[in-house]
Amino acid sequence: MAVIKVQRPKLGIGEKVYFGALIKGFFLTMGHAIKTLRGKSVGADTLHSSGLGVTMQFPEQRWDKEMPEHYRGAPTLVTDEQGRDRCVSCQLCEFICPPKAIKIEPGEIPADDRWNKVEKRPKEFEIDMIRCIYCGMCEEVCPEQAIFLRKDYLITGLKRADMVHNKKKLYEIGGVRVGLVNKWNELK
């Protein structure tokens, strides 16, 4: 088999110095700046901009109204209408989580409890929001619809410990979700 050597094209003097690329970039930037000052910047109307650019002014203006239907936000835990845990500690969400952001410690329901047929509920449930990639796999795999992604993008904390949401915080954020929960079904 014949080997063909391909010669790399030689750079001209302008390409070696790259001064032309700098000048071209400068004129492009100045063109955008002049359009912005005239109030003719592209996209300023759709982003409700201040008129001096297409950047949304974040604390005063938010994406809440323009949020797409398919947006996946922060994962949370929900309770049923009576305030009971929907989670059965099956640990499917923990096993399927690609970045391993979910940690569950199952706990047993006491034998004298009316719902001891359920067998388990989460003793500890933590989601590390720094590790979470908001993929939605935990929501898809949950058999009891106990975990879901809400449309939230304002997850902040002053230290790493603030970004690890425990069971209490997850239930506080998630709230109540209405619908049939198989584990609390009398006929099951």
Secondary-structure map:
Elements: H1 13-17, H2 19-37, E1 75-77, H3 92-96, E2 102-108, E3 120-128, H4 137-141, E4 147-149, E5 164-165, H5 167-174
Search tags:
188 residues, alpha+beta, Alpha-Beta Plaits, 2 domains, 3-stranded antiparallel sheet, metal-binding, NADH_quinone_OxRdtase_chainI, 4Fe4S_Fe-S-bd
Question: What would you note in describing this structure?
Answer:
It comes from Luteolibacter pohnpeiensis. Keywords: 4Fe-4S, Cell membrane, Iron, Iron-sulfur, Membrane, Metal-binding, NAD, Quinone, Repeat, Translocase, Ubiquinone. This is NADH-quinone oxidoreductase subunit I. The chain has 188 residues and is an alpha+beta fold. The protein folds into two domains: 14-56; 75-184, 2-Layer Sandwich (Alpha-Beta Plaits). Helices cover 22% and strands 13% of the residues. The protein is built from five helices and five strands. It has helices spanning 13-17, 19-37, 92-96, 137-141, 167-174, and strands at 75-77, 102-108, 120-128, 147-149, 164-165. The model has no long low-confidence stretch (mean pLDDT 82).
Per DSSP, the total helix count is 5
The CATH first-level class of the largest domain comes to Alpha Beta
Report the count of strand segments: 5
Helical percentage = 10-25%
Q: In order across it, which strands form the biggest sheet?
A: 2-3-5
* Average pLDDT number: 82
Class from helix and strand fractions: alpha+beta
The N- and C-terminal alpha carbons lie at a distance of 71 Å
Radius of gyration, whole Å = 27 Å
Examine the coordinates and then state which fold CATH places here, giving the name of the CATH topology of the largest domain. Answer: Alpha-Beta Plaits
Global shape: elongated
CATH architecture of the largest domain: 2-Layer Sandwich
The biggest beta sheet reads: 3 strands, antiparallel
Overall number of structural domains: 2
Instruction: Determine the strand fraction and express it as a percent band.
Output: 5-15%
Output the helix-strand order. Answer: HHEHEEHEEH
